[in-house]
Amino acid sequence: IGRNCLVLRGPGPDQIVVSRIAAAITAGERIETEILYYRKDGTPFWNALVINPIRDETGRLLYFIGSQVDISARQEAAARFVAAEERLERVADELQSALDRKTALLHEVDHRVKNNLQVIASLVHLQSRCLNGESAESALSNLTERISALTTVHRLLDHSGLDLSGDAGHLDVAAFTRELLEDIGAEPGAGSVRVDLALEPVTVPASQASALGLLVNEIAGRAMRQASLQSNDGRLHIAARKAGTNLVMTIEGDGVGPGGDQDTSELGRMLINMLSKQLKAEIVWIDAQLGTRVTITVPLAGRPA
User: What is the 3-state secondary structure (H, E, C) of 25-76?
Assistant: First the structure.
């Protein structure tokens, strides 16, 4: 209607934007920006403003041509998005705080369980020293070994990877196996065993950790004891790897058979069967070069098949 677009200015335009527009016009340059303008009734709206200089063949400035587009809907949507993002950040912070509290609680529970297991193992060990019967002493010794394996599991449980899926932590299979063998190797007669490890980095969720720890202790402990009874140096090989969504462990050594270790063979076989069912694991015993090879295949819980 023949009036300058500055009539759309109101009380709240960004002075920095206004100064940029003025500077561009003074310099005869193009400018593209967004500015808050006002309608005749005083309601604000966001305006996308483009101003281009028009020059003749010699470069002399003749006119400016400006175009304006109401982008209020886009700006409102952007504001809603920012507000939603801020709400999500607050919710995420609250969830992370709850997760941190849960993690701290799990660490405390594991610490108490580990201490209680150590006390129980000490009591059983002290009781075994008071017995004269060889079979009873051996049974208590094996019980102490199983309790120690559970203690190692709880000590090594890592909750640093705890997430909102509810996963309560993980056990590093390689670290557990190494510490287990160190504990077993401290037993009399086990020092002559030559141990070969091929342990790839694999973790199992906390829900499977105790059962797997007992299962590995049962088979590897028997293997270590049987290997230590050989006239020459006993040999023991343990490997662990991840195959798809499964953990595959191989324990191979002199005399690692399901019928060895007479004082614990019946209970040991029962425990192995019970633990393998609990883990839905497949266990295969075959004759091998070193004596017997045991292959344990465990589906890892919480991971898609």
Answer: HHHCCCEEEEEEEECCCCCEEEEEEEEEEEECCCCCEEEEEEEEEECHHHHH
| SS3 (DSSP) at 129 | helix
- CA angle (266, 271, 272) in 5-degree steps: 100
In degrees, to the nearest 5, what angle opens at C-alpha 34 toward C-alphas 27 and 3? Answer: 70
Q: Torsion over CA of 135, 238, 200 and 104, rounded to 10 degrees? A: 10
For residue 270, pLDDT over 90 is answered with no
Residue whose pair of structure tokens reads 């409102």 in the numeric block: 76
203-205/246-253 β-pairing: unpaired
Residue whose tokens read 């190494």: 178
Beta strands in the chain (DSSP E): 31-38, 44-55, 61-70, 170-172, 194-199, 203-205, 235-243, 246-253, 282-288, 291-299
Which pLDDT tens digit goes with each residue over 124-143?
666 666 666 666 767 777 77
Cα 248 from Cα 258, distance rounded (Å):
19
How does pLDDT run across 166-200, given as a tens digit for each residue?
455 788 999 999 988 888 775 544 556 788 899 99
